Amino acid sequence: MQKHGYKWLNVWFILFMSISTGFSQQFTGPIRTFGKYVTNGVSWNDYDNDGFYDIYMTNGFQSSSPLLWENFLYHNLGNGLFDSVSTAGSIESDVFLSAGSSWGDFDNDGDIDVIVGEPLTHSSGSGFFSTYFSETKVYQNNNDGTFTDLTSMGDLGNEISGGSTSQSHIGAIWVDYDNDGDLDVIESNATFLGGAQNFTMYRNNGDGTFTSISNNITAASSARAGFTAADFDEDGDIDIVTLAGNTGQNTTLWINTGTDFTETVLLSGGSTYNSQSATWLDYDGDGDLDLYIAIAGDDSNVAQPNELFRNDNGTLVQVTSGVGPIISDAYLTLVTAAADYDNDGDIDIYTGVNGDLTSSPAQHNALYTNNGSGVFTENTTTGIDTSGFAEGGSFADLDNDGDMDLMVGRQGKNYLYKNNGNSGTHWSEIECVGNGSTVNMSAIGALVKVTATINSSSKTQIRDVSPQTGRGSHNMLRTHFGLGDATYLSNITVRWPGPGTTTSYTDMPADKIMRYTFGTSTGTADVLASRTFLYLIGSSGGAVEFVSNTDVDGGTLTITRTDSDPGNAGYSGSATAPDGSTVTPNSVSNAKYWTMSESGLTGNYSARIYIDISGIAGVNNPDRLVILQRANSGSAWTPLNTSRTGNTLSTTGTVTTLGEFAIGSNTADNSLPVELSAFSLEAGDGKVVMNWKTASELENAGFVIERSVAGRDQFMEIASYQADDALKGQLYSNTETAYSFTDNSVVNGTTYTYRLWDVSLSGARTQLARQEARPMTVVSGYMLHRNYPNPFNPVTTILFDVPADEAQTPVKLTVYNSLGERIRVLFQGTLNSGSHRFEWDGTNQNGIQQASGVYILHATAGNRFSQTMKMLLVK
Question: Which end of the chain, N or C, is less surrounded by CB atoms within 10 Å?
Answer without folding.
Answer: C
